[in-house]
Design a protein that fits this description.
heterodimer, A: 426 residues, alpha+beta, Rossmann fold, D-amino Acid Aminotransferase, Chain A, domain 1, 22 strands, B: 197 residues, alpha/beta, GMP Synthetase, Chain A, domain 3, 2 domains, four-stranded mixed β-sheet, 4 helices
Amino acid sequence: MRRILLLMTSNTYRARAFLAAAESLGVAVVVGTDKAQVLAAANPAGNLTLDFHVPERGAERVLAYAREHPIAAVVAADDEGVLLAAYVSAALGLASSPVEAIAAARNKRLGRERHAAAGLKVPRYWTAAVAEDARELARRVRYPCVLKPLALSASRGVIRANDEDEFRAAHRRLLAILAERELAKLPGTLASEILIESFIPGFEVSLEGLMSEGRLRVLALFDKPDPLDGPFFEETIYVTPSRHGAEVVAAIAATTQDAVAALGLTHGPIHAELRVNAAGVWPLEIAPRSIGGLCARSLLFTSSAGDALVSLEELILRQALGEDVSGYARERRPSGVMMIPIPRAGLLAEVKGLDAAAEVPGVDDLSITVPRGQRLVPLPEGSRYLGFIFAHAETAAEVEAALRRAHANLEIVISPDPEVAGPAPC
Amino acid sequence: MITLTASAREKMAEFLATEEPGQAIRIAIAGRMKGAFEYDIAMVAEDERADDDTVIDAGAFKVYIDARSAPNLKGATVDYLESGNEAGFKLDNPNPLWSDPVALAVQKVLDEEVNPGVASHGGVVTLLDVQADTVYVALGGGCQGCGMASVTLKQGIEASIKKSVPSIAKVLDTTDHATGSNPYYQPSKGGASPFDA
């Protein structure tokens, strides 16, 4: 039986989906995680504890394991595992984007440099060490600007500033995030530098694709109908297919192909965030992984033979195992997901209206992913989704409407958090 | 089969009197949690009787017991007790939690290998049922809602059970993870683990 190495952090949202996909394909699995799993000793062939922050060391451990247990494919579920996956794949001779390309995609500064060199639209940007004086930086940049960490995803730490005062406040908040214990372990300058770039007005889209031999195949293009103008950039609704015109859609796909090529990415899943305005298409982030959270549940695919629907995770595993997946396409019906916004900080007491939300026509499922009593932290500091709503309908507009109606039924009851005095100023 | 005490019989008749005629009582083993049977006692329409149900004539009404529950209810006594502010049916059941040798073997794996392991994360795994080659479990404590629950299930619990009980093909998790209040690993967008914070 072929064996696949699934790399995932212990706080991943994706474990269940990838394990289900592997089971569906009938392949053996070894799970590589950043922390020891509780029953690992009972099944040492099925569990590996690996150093994600020093991928060379993690790769050595996998290679030693692979001598006894051959590995046919390596897939990283999350951002944190993509570099290790590339190291392991290179060492084992498995199809993968080059390590250097993955490293560039993980670092927003390197990404901007590569894209600018390739002639793509790149916001004016500055990088700064976290130790640099915020007042000096605030005088140097142009406004409005956006401060970003080099490596985090899902809008964590991303803050817009319209003037020097807002810049200094945003700078304080971003540095506090980068000082968190786990983030301080990020390799290279990922936790010791920040990116500052001009705010690009326009609408935003998200593209899900698969790379093979350097060619990008678009699996889905999501519209983000809620404006993302700051000061924080909380993702909410994703709906596919896009309702933008064919010309715009084609330009987005072409820009994404150019952007992945500029980074040197050649193989595997791609999750891209792009902004579009009258000047053209601006690649904001190209991640060598699939869409995060539980959002992939909104995507189902069918083969050209019209077989049963398969998940995005299954499609990724099939490709990793060497199968030609070019015959798979997203199902015909429009679909979407809403990442339920966190209305304010506090402790989650209750979510009311779940049954009513689930009964909204078009809603497939609703999942609250923060347990009762747990802390809710909004962006830019927050690192967790409150939950997800999934919908299908006959049109993209109906999908969006179903998601909004379902969300309107929810009452998020939040009690004060005794350990938090109040929101930080911005 | 089972015995209904006079007070249980009287209370069931009282409940049935509030409903339309043609109702019966169904008693079933709903599951096994924390080393004990869980029971389900409900009013059902008489025509919901299955062919293989055991039927007990209680005089004014009938009691149905499904075929899967019947062996585990043999010799049980159903009583109705009222004490202070509490009232309810109570079953005195002499049957062992598991009699099927496969279920016993699975329970042994959970008791000796799995639960001592997950206890280090504040977790507990309860065997709910074994049907043919499939084991049904519920994950509690630190395992309920844990981001790694699927890994624990597939790469730990299932692997351990399959190794010791080769007739088992799969282990299914029936846990409502959304109601977990203290999961060990909590999903996050990446970077910092809130658990470590």
